Amino acid sequence: MIRAAGCVLWRYAEGGGDVVEVAVVHRPKYDDWSWPKGKLKRGETALAGAVREVLEETGMHCEPGPPLPTARYLAAGRPKEVHYWAARATGGTFEPNREVDQLLWLPLEAARSRLTQRRDRELVDALAEVLAEG
């Protein structure tokens, strides 16, 4: 089992108001748009790994919130489990890197259209529910 974790990183859009934007990342190795995530290190908790991956891939610090649905699928024929959290961005600066060459802050519907995998698109609704609950 491949164990991984990540976050649906969100913020309120610049300019005020209550429009929520999420960070989607482009991974050149796979040429896809996804959430920041990655494999856990030995002995690392899923939440610690999720926060570490967000910082490594996006340069963003975050405040993790409620857990979101776990994604389970086959990756190169091996079962993979990715634990996700809603996480509010609290600062930082994106620098393109080997794993992630682009980061876009998008409104929820635009993010849903941009994300490559259906399992990632489903997390847009999960985040919207969490934010609506306050």
Helix content: 25-40%
Please name the CATH architecture: Alpha-Beta Complex
Which of globular, elongated, flat, extended, rod-shaped describes the shape? Answer: globular
C-alpha Rg (nearest Å):
14 Å
SSE pattern, N- to C-terminal: EEEEHEEEHH
Please tell me the overall pLDDT: 97
**Structural domain count:** 1
Strand coverage percent: over 45%
Distance between the termini: 34 Å
Low-pLDDT segments: none
CATH superfamily: Nucleoside Triphosphate Pyrophosphohydrolase
Main sheet makeup = 7 strands, mixed
Derived from helix and strand composition plus strand pairing, the structural class reads alpha+beta
Please report the number of helical segments. 3
Give the tally of β-strands. Answer: 7
Chain oligomer state: single chain
User: What is the fold named in CATH at topology level?
Assistant: Nucleoside Triphosphate Pyrophosphohydrolase
The CATH C-level name is Alpha Beta
In short:
By secondary structure, the protein is an alpha+beta fold. It contains 3 helices and 7 strands.
Give a written overview of the molecule.
There is one protein chain. The protein is of the alpha+beta class and 134 residues long. It has one domain: Nucleoside Triphosphate Pyrophosphohydrolase. The chain has three helices and seven strands, in the order ββββαβββαα. Strands 1, 2, 3, 4, 5, 6 and 7 form a seven-stranded mixed β-sheet that branches. Helix 2 runs antiparallel to helix 3. The longest helix has 15 residues.
Features:
134 residues; alpha+beta; Nucleoside Triphosphate Pyrophosphohydrolase; 46% strand; globular
